[in-house]
């Protein structure tokens, strides 16, 4: 017996360690299904907003929320999920409304959602995100003109500028002005008008997102002080 005990002490039995799961690994594994579900849900929501606006044409009411679901995906799950939501929403709209409508949503509104999500995630001030979004919206406006021109076989931009030039000449004639508006001046004024329109649109998108996303627990950067004062003034009134 003493020999058996001494041998056991000399050659101890191997200890088998049970693997211990890391809490961060468990959290990431449990968050993966939620990430996929939320990304798919918000991509479907963005497509549904575009789909309803296409058939009901509610004006600027739904248009304000075109980029918001994609931006919310970025705030909650990062850039990769936002790009996935962009692709899913474009594919879904291509199936429902055709490839043209899917492309026209991706450019600029889905890409605008990614851009806004990136700037909001980095806590950039409103002036930065609004100007960048307005530039993208202006590019998207001319992209839409280009797509529609390709589909119709006509240069719609030249046609529009020609009609505006004729109207300007008629207005100058009625006002008794001898100057003739040049095409270059009218094109520059049209581009500036589109850019200003996109600035106003992005400002409204920021206001709507400020009220909505704060209540969802994904806040965006605070607005300028004068906006906060105006909102408090309206609230007190």
UniProtKB/TrEMBL annotation:
Location of region: Disordered: 1-21
Segments traversing the membrane: 77-97, 127-147, 183-213
UniProt keywords, alphabetically: Membrane, Transmembrane, Transmembrane helix
Cross-referenced InterPro entries: DUF2232
Biased segments, Basic and acidic residues type: 1-12
PANTHER family attached to this UniProt entry: MEMBRANE PROTEIN
Name of the protein described by the UniProt record: DUF2232 domain-containing protein
The organism of origin for this protein: Chroogloeocystis siderophila 5.2 s.c.1
């Amino acid at each position: 017996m003493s020999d058996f005990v001494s041998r056991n002490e000399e050659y101890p039995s191997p200890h088998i360690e049970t693997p211990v799961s890391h809490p961060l690994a468990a959290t990431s594994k449990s968050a993966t299904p939620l990430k996929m579900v939320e990304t798919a849900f918000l991509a479907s929501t963005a497509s549904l907003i575009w789909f309803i606006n296409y058939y009901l044409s509610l004006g600027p009411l739904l248009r304000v929320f075109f980029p918001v679901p994609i931006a919310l995906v970025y705030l909650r799950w990062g850039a990769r999920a936002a790009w996935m939501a962009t692709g899913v929403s474009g594919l879904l709209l291509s199936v429902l409304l055709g490839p043209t409508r899917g492309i026209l949503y991706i450019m600029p509104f889905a890409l605008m959602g990614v851009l806004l999500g990136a700037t909001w995630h980095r806590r950039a001030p409103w002036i930065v995100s609004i100007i960048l979004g307005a530039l993208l919206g202006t590019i998207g406006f001319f992209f839409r003109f280009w797509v529609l021109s390709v589909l119709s076989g006509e240069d719609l931009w030249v046609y529009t500028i020609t009609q505006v030039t004729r109207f300007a000449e008629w207005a100058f004639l009625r006002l008794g002005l001898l100057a003739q508006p040049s095409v270059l001046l009218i094109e520059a004024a049209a581009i500036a008008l589109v850019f200003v329109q996109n600035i106003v649109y992005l400002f409204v998108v920021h206001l709507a997102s400020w009220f909505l996303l704060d209540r969802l627990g994904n806040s965006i950067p605070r607005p300028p002080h004068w906006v906060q004062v105006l909102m408090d003034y309206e609230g007190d009134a």
